[in-house]
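Lab meeting prep.
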Amino acid sequence: MHARSKGILLAAISAFGFGTLAIFGRLATEAGIDLPTLLAYRFLLATPMVWVPMLARRRLSPLRGRNLAIGIGLGAVGYAAMSYLFLFGVNLTGAGLGALILYIYPALVVALAATVMDERITRLTVAAALVAVVGVGLVATGQPVRVDPLGVGVLLLAAGVYATYIVLSRHVLQTVSAPALSAHVIPAASVTFVAYTLLTGTFTIPTSPYEWGIVVGVAALATAVPILTFFAAVSIVGASRTSVVSTFEPVFTVALGAVVLGESLTLGSIVGGSAVLAGVLLIQLERTEPS
């Protein structure tokens, strides 16, 4: 297989993996597994799944000092909060719809980068961000029944938290590699949820193969595999092209939601979702650099 094709395939696998998170969240809730417990298992089990391959290939060095403190903070607070808010919102709106609403975050990253980091943005990027925002509105209003406004609000908050996390992480990524940062964010997030579930007495152990399949699946398929394949793709085709392919993550979620959960989207939602994806894709293409 040609190197570029291999890189694109790895990026697609990563997008598919991340796209399963909302599905596992819905399945866990239906099985009686509360979200903090699911996320505790997600990050706890994913930690060795990510660390072992990276250490074996000597692509990881532990962070120290200020960078370690920032990495822990980003994981324990930022990524942990985004993960919980996203799955909480998904349980109110559905997996496919939730994934499309969350994907407003690239537009929010553009806005934050321009205002907080004083990054230069083009008119095309602004237009693309506006298209994505309009698309979210169409998605939220194009349902056959009234969408839970709390769910939409929670998902928009999750997108805002995620955008803030990405912008803040850029400061650390000036001195450390993205794989190293991600490898520290995951165990930090696990500490948050393990501590919460133990302190509140809500931590439970799966009692059936089906429940174990959900917690192992969310750790492996929705976390470790997409992280490892994303960085592998970046090493082959570059971060920009990998990010463009990753734009199709919510498409996989919508498809899986229909197949696994029996969800459906109206024409209005499909049009809105297409606008979201078009806007995000334009943002990614605008920022793509030859590599």
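Slide two material, second protein:
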Amino acid sequence: MDIAGKTIIVTGGGGGIGGATAVLLAERGAAVVLVDRDETAAKDVLEQLASGSHRLVDADVSDPEQITGIFDLISAEGRDFAGVINAAGIVSGGLPWPASDLGRMRTVIEVNAAGTILLSTLAARQSGGGGRIVVNVASAAAIRPLPPDPAYAASKAAVLAFTRSAAAAAVPGLRVNAVLPGVVRTRMLDSTGTDGVAPWLAPRLEQPLLTAGQVAAAILELVVGDQNGESWSLELDKSNPDRVIRSVL
């Protein structure tokens, strides 16, 4: 898929995976719409993008009205829409389950699962002569237990199930894929606890972790390739941190 000159929405565009993906997309000539509630972080990413008609949008990805407005904006500006990278995501944080905050757990489901489903659905409704691509960022937690944060695991399992079903719907011109990374070193980890990194996660961070750039490289491959309905599990080769082990689920 040739993305040069085409517009791709990246949710969580100010975050680690979203930001790294936006950079790679811009290097390929795509016009990136960065969607993030953190304007400062998104602006930092914007400054890293190769030249192009990029823009920032502050929107809640779980709000149907707000995300519909993003697509209305793209249409009004006459952009050639090519797809969505659903990288926005949050964790429950704080105390491990079942002591997790109930309101926060609900927001995790809304952002991670509902946001992905809504953005993907609107992408599927768009016209695009060159095809459209959706890549959803799920997690290894979708396929194996995460006892401290079952809400997060459930939200990512929903992303995986949605991806498979949306691809099977065989909407003409639409490809839907997902990546399921293990723990990725991003700023999000620093807010997993009430004051920094959650104690239950801290030991894991002492081991080699995937980088946002490694995950972004896999996402880019799915964007420019011809895959449809594929879900890639991404794990770091602990004996060689420069190598990512990919498994097709």
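Talking points for slide two:
The helical segments are 16-27, 39-48, 64-76, 102-124, 150-168, 212-224.
The longest helix spans residues 102-124.
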